[in-house]
Amino acid sequence: MAETATTLVELDYKENLGWCIGAVVITLMAIGTVFVFSAGVEVAKGVNLSRFYESANLRKTLFFPLAVAVMLVVSRFNYRRLGFDNGLWRSPMTYLFGISVILLVLVLIPHIGSEINQARRWLRIPLGPATISFQPSELAKWTVIFSLSAFCVKYGDRLKSFKQGFLPVCIVLGLVVGLIIIEDFGSAALIAMLAFFILLIGGANWRYLVAPLPVAAIGFAAAILASPTRITRITSFLHPDQFTGSSNYQASQSLVAIGSGGLFGKGLGMGVCKYGHLPEDTTDFIFAIIGEEMGLLGTLTVIALFIIFIVLGVMVINRCKEPFGKLLATSIVLAVGVQAALNIGVVTVVLPTKGLPLPFVSAGGTSMLLTAAAVGVLLNIASQCEKTQLREDE
Fold this sequence. Notes:
This protein is mainly alpha-helical and about 400 residues long. It has helices spanning about 1-15, 15-40, 55-75, 90-105, 135-155, 160-180, 185-200, 205-210, 215-225, 230-240, 250-260, 285-320, 325-345, 365-394; strands at about 115, 120-125, 130-135.
């Protein structure tokens, strides 16, 4: 009798694992919606569809329920269809990868790609009175993660051959990263880092992984030296006191915001750094606004939620027996965890400014919707693992 009760409790817990992940993600998105609204409220000028994408708080408010819907809808699709079991040309990831490369090329073309803050990273799509913006590098990030995971599982043996498997993969990855690094160094570095870890976990020969590192380092160094803005960011990070009022202004104001919040914060909506003192307060530096208004307890709450997400994700990984699901879940959890750590590191000035949003929390429709879709895939993996476990227990 006791054994039966214990089994039922274990099964019930396993069945709720996906819902626990969904609840954590929805909580993070809700926190982001509240604080993006708080940070952008002083510039709100009413609801005007023609200025839809100029209002960060309006975007976030509308994208929050949409992202939840995307996550739930995607969670109903079998993740195995994203793999290469039936061949490269029968997988939707092959075509999504090709589309993302085309969009990366288009965004670099003047008058097609939209330039914001001296960077051409967005495509503007007019829809009547509203204009929708789309960031191709976000789509490229997730298509690389999904496609590389599928390739490692299906064609893992080829990765053990330098010429037949590893080199072609590096060439394709180099093309994607090269297109992105022209205008977005942070996203390019993140994708390269994630690809390295996925290949390492996916079974690639570690000697092959080490060999391209000097070439990659030279490429990233050349990209930094070719951009005065990137050089200035590195210099101001190494010598912050000399650039407090110029290139290091945003980083210094971020510390002011976090430090002034103290333990409990100034109260929701009571922060002052958002009034023109902290640029990018709704996007890359939303964590600083949380620190100012909710204090150390608020920032620790956000960090704790990301840690819980990672722990729950690891549980899904450990319980998944299917190779593709296991590697794909690992890649999704790794991508969210690494990006969150990098963003928080930038906001706390542990790392140089990179321009990466805080997953689920920062304003930005493209990032929010695509990351929510990726979490939906993770939920489906959790669900499929639970069904497999139930059949084995029977």
